[in-house]
C-alpha cells in the first residue's frame, strides 16, 4: 500500500499524460507555452477568481504575495504554529517577523481567538506593525475564513490564504484559494492537485496585485523581460508541468475530489469512536490532502505507527514540531511550552494513506489493524 499512490494515478491517466508531455516535447515551447495560459484560465474559473498566475512552487507563491504587498522589515505576519515550515519561512525571507498563533485541535487550523490575542500583543508591544495573516487550509480543510476576515478587517490586515494543501476544498460552495486578498496553492506531486515536479499558483481578484505578481515572477519585468523595473524572482511554471496539470485537473474535477471524500467517509465510519477522527463543520468540504487521526498520547501514537509499519502500512507524522520550536525560529523569543494545542497535535497526530485510488480493501486492512491495536492496548 502506498501513502499517496502516484503510480496508480499515472496508470489511470497514462494515455492523456503521455500525449500531453509528448506534445510539449514536439512543440519545444518549454517556457511560457500556450498550456500555461490555458491552465491559468481553467484554474481561475474553477476557483472563481479573476486572476490565476502560475509560478515555480508554493513557497514562491507565498513570497510573491508578500512582495506584492511590500511586506518587510518592521512588519508582523501572523502564522499558525502548526503547519509546514514554508508558511512562516517566507515571512522571515522578506525580512518581516513571523508571529505564531495557536490552532484548534479539532480542525488543525488557526484559532481565531489566539490570532486576536497575538495581534493585540504585537500592538501593545509596539515593536512591529501588524500587516498580514497567513491562514493555512491544513490537510485540505479551509480555515475559518468568516472569523479570520472579520479580525483582519478590524485590525486592517491583509489575508493571505495558504491553500498549498487546500485546493479543491470549499465553504458553502465557495472554493478554497478564493478566500484571501491573495491566495496560493502548491502543485508539489503529493498535493491534492500535483504535477510531476515543483509548481505553484497565486490567485486574486485584485487587478493591481495580479499585474505586480506577473512582473515579480519574471525578474521584475516591465514592458518585456529585458526591461526590469523592480527586483523580482525567476519563478515560472514549466510548460510540461502545465500540460500535465491540465490532464490532472480534468480528473480532479471529474472524480478524484469526490473519490478522496469517499475514502475519508469510509475511514471515519470505521474509526469513529476508536480514535479522534477529523471533524468537518457544516458547510465545509475538504480536499483531504491528509486524513489525520489523533491518538491519546505520544506513546500510543508512536506504538501504533510501529504496528502499522510492521504490516507494511505507511503512515506519516505531520508535524513533529510546532513552528516556534524549529531551530530557524529559536531567536524569536518564544517559550518552549507556548501554544498548547499545537504541541498536543505534534504528539498525537498520525496521517493515514490517502489518495483517490485507495481501495476499500486497503482501507479495511489499515482500519482493522488500528482497531486491533487499540483493543489490545485496552486489555493490557
Ligand atoms: C501548508 C504549506 N504551505 C506551503 C507549502 C510550500 O509549497 P511548495 O513545496 O510547492 O513550495 C507547502 C508544501 O508542502 C505546504 O504544505
Question: What this model shows, in words?
Answer:
With 380 residues, this protein is of the alpha/beta class. It has eleven helices and twelve strands. Strand 6 and strand 7 form a beta hairpin. The radius of gyration is 21 Å and the shape is globular. The model has no long low-confidence stretch (mean pLDDT 97). The structure holds pyridoxal-5'-phosphate (PLP). Residues 57-59, 83-84, 86-87, 136, 162, 164-165, 186, 188, 198, 200 line the site of pyridoxal-5'-phosphate.
Short description:
With 380 residues, the chain is an alpha/beta fold. It has helices at residues 6-27, 34-47, 58-68, 86-93, 112-125, 145-154, 207-216, 239-271, 298-310, 340-348, 360-379; strands at 51-55, 75-80, 97-101, 129-136, 158-162, 170-171, 174-175, 182-186, 200-204, 284-285, 291-294, 349-352.
Write out key terms for the chains shown:
380 residues, alpha/beta, seven-stranded mixed β-sheet, three-stranded antiparallel β-sheet, 11 helices, 14% strand, globular, binds pyridoxal-5'-phosphate
Write the layout of secondary structure elements.
Elements: H1 6-27, H2 34-47, E1 51-55, H3 58-68, E2 75-80, H4 86-93, E3 97-101, H5 112-125, E4 129-136, H6 145-154, E5 158-162, E6 170-171, E7 174-175, E8 182-186, E9 200-204, H7 207-216, H8 239-271, E10 284-285, E11 291-294, H9 298-310, H10 340-348, E12 349-352, H11 360-379
Parallel strand pairs: 2-3, 2-4, 4-5, 5-8
Antiparallel strand pairs: 1-9, 6-7, 6-10, 8-9, 11-12
Helix pairs in contact: 1-8, 2-8, 3-4, 3-7, 8-11
Bound molecules: pyridoxal-5'-phosphate (PLP).
Pyridoxal-5'-phosphate binds at residues 57-59, 83-84, 86-87, 136, 162, 164-165, 186, 188, 198, 200.
Amino acid at each position: 500500500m502506498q501513502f499517496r499512490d502516484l503510480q496508480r494515478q499515472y496508470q489511470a491517466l497514462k494515455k492523456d499524460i503521455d500525449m500531453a508531455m509528448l506534445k510539449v516535447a514536439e512543440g519545444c515551447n518549454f517556457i511560457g507555452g500556450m498550456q500555461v495560459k490555458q491552465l491559468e484560465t481553467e484554474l481561475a474559473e474553477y476557483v472563481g477568481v479573476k486572476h490565476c498566475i502560475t509560478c515555480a512552487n508554493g513557497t514562491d507563491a507565498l513570497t510573491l504575495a508578500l512582495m506584492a504587498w511590500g511586506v518587510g522589515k518592521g512588519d508582523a505576519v501572523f502564522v499558525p504554529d502548526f503547519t509546514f515550515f514554508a508558511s512562516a519561512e517566507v515571512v522571515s525571507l522578506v525580512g518581516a517577523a513571523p508571529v505564531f498563533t495557536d490552532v484548534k485541535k479539532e480542525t488543525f487550523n488557526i484559532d481565531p481567538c489566539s490570532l486576536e490575542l497575538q495581534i493585540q500583543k504585537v500592538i501593545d508591544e509596539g515593536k512591529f506593525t501588524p500587516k498580514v495573516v497567513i491562514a493555512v487550509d491544513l490537510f485540505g480543510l479551509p480555515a475559518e475564513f468568516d472569523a479570520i476576515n472579520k479580525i483582519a478587517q478590524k485590525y486592517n490586515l491583509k489575508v493571505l490564504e495558504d491553500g498549498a494543501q487546500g485546493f479543491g476544498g470549499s465553504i458553502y460552495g465557495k472554493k478554497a484559494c478564493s478566500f484571501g486578498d491573495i491566495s496560493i496553492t502548491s502543485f508539489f506531486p503529493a498535493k491534492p492537485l500535483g504535477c510531476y515536479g515543483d509548481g505553484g499558483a497565486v490567485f486574486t481578484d485584485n487587478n493591481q496585485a495580479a499585474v505586480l505578481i506577473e512582473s515579480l515572477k519574471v525578474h521584475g519585468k516591465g514592458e518585456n523581460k529585458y526591461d526590469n523595473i523592480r527586483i523580482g524572482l525567476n519563478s515560472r511554471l514549466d510548460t510540461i508541468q502545465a500540460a500535465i496539470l491540465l490532464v490532472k485537473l480534468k480528473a480532479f474535477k471529474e472524480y478524484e475530489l469526490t473519490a478522496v471524500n469517499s475514502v475519508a467517509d469510509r475511514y471515519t465510519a470505521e474509526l469513529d469512536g476508536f480514535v479522534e477522527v477529523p471533524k468537518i463543520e457544516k458547510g465545509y468540504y475538504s480536499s483531504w490532502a491528509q486524513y489525520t487521526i489523533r491518538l491519546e498520547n505520544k506513546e500510543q501514537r508512536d506504538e501504533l505507527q510501529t504496528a502499522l509499519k510492521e504490516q507494511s502500512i505507511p503512515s506519516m507524522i505531520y508535524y513533529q514540531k510546532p513552528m516556534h520550536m524549529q531551530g530557524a525560529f529559536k531567536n524569536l523569543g518564544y517559550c518552549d511550552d507556548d501554544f498548547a494545542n499545537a504541541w498536543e497535535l505534534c504528539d498525537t497526530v498520525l496521517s493515514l494513506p490517502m489518495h483517490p485510488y485507495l481501495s476499500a480493501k486497503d482501507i479495511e486492512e489499515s482500519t482493522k489493524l488500528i482497531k486491533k491495536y487499540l483493543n489490545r492496548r485496552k486489555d493490557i
